[in-house]
Amino acid sequence: MSPQPNSWQSPGEAEFDLRSDTITRPTESMLQAISRSTLSDDVFQEDQTTNSLQEYIAQRTGHDAGLLVLSGTMGNQVAIRTHLSEPPYSVICDRRAHILQSEAGNDHYLTLEDIQENAVLSNNIHRCPTRLISLENTLYGLIMPLQETARIVNWAHAHDIKVHLDGARLWDAAVSGAGSLYDYAHLFDSVSLCFSKGLGAPIGSIIVGSRRFIDKARWFRKSIGGGIRQAGILAAAARVGVDEVFGHGPCGEGGKLQEAHDKARRVAEMWTRRGGKLLYPVQTNMVWVDVSSAGLQLSTLASVGKSKGLRLGEQRIVIHHQISERTLQRLEEVFHIVLNQRQSKL
User: Fold this and answer.
1) Which terminus of the chain has fewer Cβ atoms in its 10 Å neighbourhood, N or C?
2) What are the C-alpha distances in Å from 76 to residues 82, 220, 277?
């Protein structure tokens, strides 16, 4: 008699949930890795599974060391506190950035000219000098080009300004072909990467940087309650997410994210083929549909989606690696209904 399937053996509800890639479910291979993980104390830096993951990600991103943290928010906040331990200082970031909107130019990405326009380089005591630039890639599913990223970082370093990257979804930028994980990450003084969004691990992010930076960051992690004792169970699942979902190659070769990107482009085509408009171009795994321009309420997509067994947000559709073909079939039915409503109003 075959064993009863459990939530580790299938995506479950995540297969039909397009609200975010945070929805992804941990897999059975992650559970198996957890069962084999070491169970030593990471606060004492003695856990082999955790140390191995930190060294592995540091190596893949071109940095000296890594530090496992509980969430992307914690990773960004620890990194920023580590960089900015002595006031006065100010931080430049995109107005849409997660550290500003959720952690309290052009419409696609920041440019060096945007940075230069807002940076404070003088010693005028009426304005705090810029000590840190925090970039985010991807942002809204859009990719910051590698060349522009390098321009900003080189300019910042020439003015003794540190640069941090919120790279929660940097995996997607690498898979898109814009540049490898190393190409992007090694430019920065620090980078945070998330394991629990598109990679599907149950919990966790990591910060990478110089060894001196990570040693200092460890103190700040502890001060805000982020010290993890038996961290191996988290690190083991995260490692599986990196290897199986992102892939072993520098641009995600052998992983599952490219298929999600391909499906996202199909979703965009399904929408535009029926006359719908997009808010942003589709570059990775996010499709931003313009519901308002269709003369519909923002709640329309979610309500019609619910009738088809899908969970949808207002305008952002996120395709993760556990979205199936039958999900896309249902989504096409939703688009047909929604955009026909528009036609009936014309």
Assistant:
1) N
2) 10, 11, 34
For residues 248 and 123, what is the distance between their CA atoms, to the nearest angstrom?
Answer: 47
Going through 153-275 in order, the beta strands assigned E by DSSP cover 162-166, 190-194, 205-209
State pTM to two decimals: 0.91
- 162 CB-near residues (< 8 Å, 6+ apart): 83, 131, 132, 133, 156, 189, 190
The two structure tokens encoding residue 157: 């370093």
Instruction: Please answer whether residues 44 and 341 qualify as being in contact, where contact means their C-beta atoms are separated by less than 8 angstroms.
Output: no
Q: Give per-residue pLDDT as tens, 165-216.
A: 999 999 999 999 999 999 999 999 999 999 999 999 999 999 999 999 999 9
112 with 148: CB under 8 angstroms? yes
Residue-wise pLDDT tens digits, 279-305: 999 999 999 999 999 888 999 999 999
1 pLDDT more than 90 = no
Q: Tell me 128's DSSP state.
A: P
What's the average model confidence in pLDDT over 66-95? 87
Residue 36: exposed, middle, or buried by beta-carbon count in 10 A (0-12, 13-18, 19+)? exposed
The DSSP symbol for 17 reads B
| Three-state secondary structure call for residue 122 | coil
* Sign of the Cα pseudo-torsion (177, 182, 186, 188, in order): positive
- Residue 108 in contact with residue 95, Cβ under 8 Å? no
